[in-house]
Structure formats: C-alpha cells, structure tokens
Amino acid sequence: MLKRNRKKWYWLIAAVVIVILLAASIMAKAKKGEEKGPAKVKVGRMDIIDKALAVGAIEPRNEIAVKSKTSGVVGKLYVEVGDHIQAGAPLLDVRPDPTPLELAEATRGVEIAEIELATLSKELERQKELQAKGLIAQQEYETLAQQHDQASVRTQIARERLALLKKGRINIAGNAIETTVRAPITGYILQKSVNLGDPVVPLTSYQAGTELMKMADMKDLLFRGTLDEIDVGKITEGMPCELQIGALPGKTVKGHVSLISLKARKEENTTLFPVEIAIDDAAGAVLRAGFSANASVIISKKEKVLAIPERVVTFRNDSAFVQISTGPESSKEQYIRTGLSDAINIEVISGLQEGQEVLEKKVKPIV
C-alpha cells in the first residue's frame, strides 16, 4: 500500500514539473515574439561606390618572342628562365647544321664562281692589252671589266655562304655576322621554348620561324581583361581602378583605364569588350605575369551619405517607397528620393532622416 502511494506522488510531481516547463516555454516564446516584432533597419551614413567589374590577368605591356634568322640546331644556351638580361647580351648559339646536299651545293658553288672569275680575269688581261693598242673600243673593255667585278662579288658571296654553313660566323665589311641570337630588349626571360640540340627554323618573309624564348620588361605591367557590354558604356579612359589579385590577398593595386576596345567579342553567348588598365601603384606587391585578377572600375563614388539597404526599397512607376512604422501593429508607405546605388546599398536624397528606422519587406511564404 505504501509503495502504491509513493508511485502516485512520483507521477503527480512529474506531471506538475512538465506543466510548469510547458508554460514557461510558451511565455518565453510569446515574450520573444513581442520583443522582436517586425524587422527594421536604421538609416545611416556610408560610402556608396558604383563599380564595373572586369575579369582578366596581369600581363607585360610588351612581350617579345625571340627568333633566329639562321637555321641550324641549338648549340649553346647562355640564359635560364628568370634571368634579367641587358639588350644585346647573347641568349643562345645556333650551330649550323646543313644537309649534305646544302653543303655540297655550297662547296661546288664556290668552285664554279672561282672558275668563272679566273676565266674573266684572263679575258680581261687580253682585252687590256688590245685596248692599249687601240684594237678594241673603250666601251667593250669597260663592259668586260664590269662582268669581271660582278663575278668577283659572286665568288665572295659563295665563299661567305660556305663559311657561314661550316662555322656559323663571318665578317662582312667589318660587320660581324654570327649565328648567336642576342636579346632584343632589356628584360627578364619569361619562357624558354628550346633545349640543346633542338632544330631551329629561321624567321623569313614566308615563315614564322621557331620561337626560342619569350622576354618582357617586368617593370611595365598592365591588366588585360574583359568587361560586360552593360558596363562598357559607363566607363571612359582615365577612370580610376582597384585591382584584386587572387595570389595576393589583402593587397589592393591601383591603376586607371588606359584602353577600351572598339570591337566586342563573343564568349559563351556573352558580349564582352577587351580593356587595358595601366598600373599606377602596386602597393609594394611583387607582380608576376599571368596573375589572375579582377578590376573594379570606379564609375562614381559618394562618401558618408545617407543610405539604406536596397532590399527594403520598393520601386514603382519610376518612384521609390519604403515602409515606416506608425505603431505596434501599423505602418505606412513613405516616398523617398534615391541616388547612387552599388546594388547592395542605395543613397537616400530625401524622405528619411539619419537614425530613422525602416521596416524590412515581409517575406512571402513559399507555397
């Protein structure tokens, strides 16, 4: 009997505790709902910046592809990627590597030219004696002398060609002609495209030639990227820009728009315009060719103006409205004049005061 009474008391106490907890929970929720009420935002002062975003990369203004004007194979390399080279310094040697046919033709070409020169030399001596005796006209002698001089030049060309094929260097009228490729500019070696023994095709008027290296002056860098056609009409050359570089978080590089392309290009059904941005201040960052970057072109900027989140504004018939509270359960629509927007916050020109509260829009339930 005593055990039964104890069980009843236990159940009674447990039921009372549960009732008290439920009541406290309901009261807390009700109080929280009363305190919270409709969500509000305050009108405050902030900076509003209207920007256009360009996506691209950091590149040298001038990147040079180094090529050779003579054929052969790479015989010696003087530089490595990353080296800083002065203009005119040797980069590599192109060792002559003529085919057996080329060497045979050049050798026989010298022999033929020498035979022709020797024949004309003998004929010129005879003509000289006849001309001294008055047996031939002066014009005939001068014509033969001209042919002799031309044969002499052809012989010299044949010998120089053979020497260039064999040794890779000759001297013509005091000018050294060699197969050493030298740096066209002062700058850094960005890329090396050949190794020892690789064949080299020369640069001529009818062929592009083998690209040996790429060089650039890394002190003269710029941003090259693309801008959406929606924004391109808002920007002009000279506008200030801020670059955010993925490899350098926290660094803001400053520049200005230096070029806006006159012709668009299509990428995945999107119309984009190429732009170039000159870098004015790298903020102490070491920039490298190929860094991906985003450029924010500052179209317009206002500092410390009255503003509210654009999400609380209702636009209707070219006018802007917000909801302001008039009591615990009531509100009214207030007309406001708006100004600059950055797509997140919008400037309030008139209709609201600093510190005034504006109601958030009601969230429509998802059906």
Write a structural description:
With 367 residues, the chain is an alpha+beta fold. The protein is built from four helices and 23 strands. The strands form five sheets. A six-stranded antiparallel β-barrel has the order 2-13-17-15-14-18. A four-stranded antiparallel β-sheet has the order 3-12-10-5, with no helix packed on it. Strands 9-6-4-11 form a four-stranded antiparallel β-sheet, with no helix packed on it.
Short description:
The protein has 367 residues and is an alpha+beta fold.
Number of helices: 4
Distance between the termini: 59 Å
Q: Whole-number average pLDDT?
A: 83
The whole-angstrom Rg is 42 Å
Strand order of the largest sheet: 2-13-17-15-14-18
For the biggest sheet, the summary is: 6 strands, antiparallel, barrel
Number of strands: 23
What is the 3D shape? elongated
Strand content: 35-45%
Helix content: 25-40%
List unreliable stretches of 5+ residues. Answer: none
The SSE order reads HEEEEEEHHEEEEEEEHEEEEEEEEEE
Q: Structural class, from helix and strand content?
A: alpha+beta
